[in-house]
Design goal:
Keywords: FAD, Flavoprotein, Oxidoreductase, Signal. Its cofactor is FAD. GO terms for molecular function: cytokinin dehydrogenase activity; FAD binding. This is cytokinin dehydrogenase. With 528 residues, this protein is α+β, with helices and mostly antiparallel strands. Helix content is 28%, strand content 21%. Strands 7, 8, 9, 10, 11 and 12 form a six-stranded antiparallel beta sheet that branches. Helix 12 runs antiparallel to helix 13. The protein is globular, with a radius of gyration of 23 Å. The C terminus is likely disordered.
Length: 528
């Protein structure tokens, strides 16, 4: 059997023959680079989670989709085929973008803009922009604002993520209740499949691949272009936080708010759990002034756990005179603690980029590049109160080591044909434990071991209580856990799509679902 090094030499020879192409207005200059240098492979072995290490043999920085297609076709000729994973900004949590012993395709970076001017399409009846799969959402925002005052409709809380990365999962934030996730706001994709074929797909063209790739965890292809829906960007945001001590009132108000339509609604709805005072002034925003932090004791919540409802109303300077009245009318229907209304006003871009400002502060303190044992769950609305009693008021104790988000979404805004797995109810909640471990801390509740064990307790509680929660950004061990995650019907579809679009099982091996050495479609040809 040829050695991995021998296989890599063959791949290097293929890379030297790559040529550039243009695709749908995205002109990409030829500068393919496949490197074995530790300065490139070592950073590609870790991610934001900082809990895994998957060292690749090499890193490819493609200048065009054809670079990726040639690489995949070449990797399939190895025996066994070499694993390949696309990596955006490296913000995965459990090594999902890794390719141990294989090749990481570095989609982001390089300093080149790969976006076309926004287009007002008669075909789609919408405005859109075509972007390279490795572009960061912050750069898409800045580009579309500068070219027509436009912006994407659906976001993630943190904008320094790649387009291809979020579309491979879902891409969610407080706008998802109305617009759906980012995968519901894409008109068309260019994808390099696991066969090395460059395919354009949409709801009407190659639709099976289109729906497979969206939320597909990188298993079916690498997104090289995405056609993103746009809308006119508002100029300013009224940002409101209100507090609750009663969980039933908190969730009832959230679910009522996401049912509203038209202009008489908020534009963004999220929430978070507060079990210690520090987290009301958490790292996710600079909402409250550091010189004037909010004290829970001053609010009189009357309990150990409080719940914060976070809302925004977008507006333009021309409608500034009516924004107070609109917000007051919406707040009047809610049942929060009366003395707990906090508001601020800021430019739309500053609100969208709020987490990055806090990132800079944490980097300055050396508290950004630490382990992040995050756990993200979709919890059915019918069981969210059981989850509150068992987790927020039970397992967590009085320390969280990071924000805990909780907000509802409407399943009708999601396309069931995508690869994403959701609870089987019309309304479900994202519950996101965004915790950070602090190496060397004397507080054991801030250790990676403690937080990881607490995550396992939460998952075990859901199982024992019969709460059919589904992991978002999932991390599972072994085929049995993955089959349980997808459920029989979804798993059958997932396997069928894998056999069609990546029959050698070389893509997205960091997810731990398939691997070329144990591929159910070709395992007899490539024994481990």
């Amino acid at each position: 059997m040829p050695s991995a090094t021998h296989n890599l030499v063959l791949l290097l020879l293929f890379i030297h023959r790559l040529i550039s192409i243009s695709t749908v207005g995205l002109s990409l200059p030829p500068s393919p680079a496949l490197t074995l240098l530790p300065s490139q492979t070592l950073p590609a072995a870790v991610d934001f989670g900082a809990t895994t290490h998957s060292l690749p043999l090499a890193v490819l920085r493609p200048s065009s989709p054809s670079d990726i297609a040639s690489l995949i076709r070449s990797a399939r000729l190895s025996s066994p085929p070499l694993p390949i994973s696309a990596r955006g900004h490296g913000h995965s949590i459990n090594g999902q973008a890794g390719a141990r012993g294989g090749i990481v395709v570095a989609m982001s970076g390089g300093g080149r803009r790969r976006m076309s001017p926004p287009v007002n399409s008669m075909e789609f009846g919408k405005t859109y922009v075509d972007v390279w799969g490795g572009e960061l959402w912050i750069d898409v925002l800045n580009w579309t604002l500068a070219n027509g005052g436009l912006a994407p409709r659906s976001w993630t809380d943190y904008l320094y993520l790649s387009v291809g990365g979020t579309l491979s999962n879902a891409g969610i934030s407080g706008q998802a209740f109305h617009y759906g996730p980012q995968i519901s706001n894409v008109f068309e994709l260019d994808v390099v499949t696991g066969k090395g074929e460059l395919v354009t797909c949409s709801q009407d063209e190659n639709s099976e691949l289109f729906h497979a790739v969206l939320g597909g965890l990188g298993q079916f292809g690498i997104i090289t272009r995405a056609r993103i829906a746009l809308e006119p960007a508002p100029e300013r945001v009224r940002w409101i936080r209100v507090l609750y001590s009663n969980f039933t009132s908190f969730t009832r108000d959230q679910e009522q708010l996401i049912s509203l339509h038209g202009q008489q609604r908020f534009d963004y709805i999220e929430g978070f759990v507060i079990v210690d005072e520090g987290l009301i002034n958490n790292w996710r925003s600079s909402f409250f002034s550091p010189s004037n932090p909010v004290k829970i004791s001053s609010i009189g919540g009357g309990g150990r756990v409080l719940y914060c409802l976070e809302l925004t109303k977008n507006y333009h300077h021309a409608s500034a005179d009516s924004i107070d009245e609109e917000v007051e009318a919406l707040l009047r229907e809610l049942d929060f603690i009366p003395a707990s209304v906090f508001t601020t006003d800021l430019p739309y871009v500053d609100f969208l980029d709020r987490v990055h400002k806090s990132e800079l502060k944490l980097r300055a303190k050396g508290l950004w590049e630490v382990p992040h044992p995050w756990l993200n769950l979709f919890v059915p609305a019918s069981r969210i109160e059981d989850f509150d009693r068992g987790v927020f008021r039970g397992i967590l104790g009085n320390n969280t080591s990071g924000p805990i988000l909780i907000y509802p979404m409407n399943q009708r805004r999601w396309d069931e044909r995508s690869s994403v797995v959701l609870p089987g109810e019309d309304i479900f909640y994202l519950v996101a434990f965004l915790r950070s471990a602090v190496p060397g801390s004397s507080d054991r509740t801030k250790s990676l071991e403690y937080l990881s064990n607490q995550n396992r307790q939460i998952l075990k509680f859901c199982e024992s209580a019969g709460i059919e929660a589904k992991q978002y950004l999932p991390s599972h061990r072994g085929r049995v856990e993955w089959e349980r995650h997808f459920g029989p019907d979804k798993w059958e579809t997932f396997q069928r799509r894998k056999a069609e679009f990546d029959p050698s099982c070389i893509l997205g091996t960091g997810q731990g679902i398939f691997h070329p050495t144990s591929c159910p479609f070709t395992s007899s040809l490539f024994p481990s």
